[in-house]
Prior knowledge:
Helix 4 packs across helix 5 (about 135-145). The protein has helices at about 15-35, 90-100, 105-110, 110-130, 135-145, 170-180, 235-245, 260-265; strands spanning about 50-55, 60-65, 70-80, 155-160, 165-170, 185, 200-205, 210-220, 225-235, 250, 255-260. The chain is an alpha+beta fold. About 40% of the residues are buried. Mean pLDDT is about 90; it is low at about 1-25.
Amino acid sequence: MKKNIKKWGFRGMKSKKASIVKKAGHKTENILAFLIGVPVENILTGTGKIDLTNKEGDSISLKSSHDKKGRSQICLYSYDSDYFKIKNVSAVKMKECLEVFPKTKEEYRLNRLSVKKNLQPKMVELKNYINASNKNKKEFLSFIFFTTTTGKTIDFLIVTDQKLSFYVFDASEVVDTFCKKTIVENSKARHPLEMSNLKVLFKGKNEKGKYVNLIENEIRTSTHYRRFLSVGNKTKYLFVLLSNIKPHKKVKDKLILCGKAISSFKF
C-alpha cells in the first residue's frame, strides 16, 4: 500500500514518476530508522502497511509523501484483497462498492455511465454507515489506516512535514482525533460533466477554520482497475493532528513525539 501510486484521482501517476516517488520514500525510511536507532533490517519492504518497527518491535506506518500537494496513499484494496477476508461491516460495504464494476476494464469503458450510477447509492450507503455511530467511524478509519491483512493493528503513525521533520502519533489517538474532528460527506459535482456521490470524503478544519478534504475514498479505474483507494492530504491532516494531539516533545533533531506517544514510543 505504499508509494507506487499514480497522480491522484482516477487517473494516476505515470510509472517514471511513481518510481521516483517510491525511491524517495525508501530514502525517508532510512532516515527514520537512523533517528529511532534501528538498523535498516527493521524496514519492511513491499506493499504492506507496516513500514518499519522500533526497538520494542512496535509497528510503524510512515506517511512521507513527496507529492507537491502533500497527497499520500492510505490504502489500495483490490477486489480479491486479503483485507476483505477481515470480517467487519466497513470491509463488506467497501467491497460492495467494487462489486458494481464489471470484471474487465474494457467492459467498464463500454458501460461507464451506468456503472457510475450504480456506484452512487453504494457510496451514499458507505457514508451513512460511517456517520451512523462513532464506533462505525472508528472501525472504518482503523481499517483503512492501521489494520494489517492478519487483522492486527499497527501501533504508531509517523508523518513528515515539508521540512522532513518526523511527528510520531499513537495510532489509537489518531483514530480518536479523526473521529472527533472530521465530518463525513459524499462528493459533489463541481461542473455539469461530473457526477456527485462517487466518493466518501473526510473533512476537517484548516488553519483558517474552513472545512477541507483530508481523506478521499473512491474506486480506482485506471492502471489499478477495480480497487478501493483511500488517499489523504498529508499536509492538511497533519495540521489537524498537531492541533488536537498535544503536547509535542522534540526528542531529537527532526523527531517530535506527540500526545500519548511521548510515553509509549521507544527509540
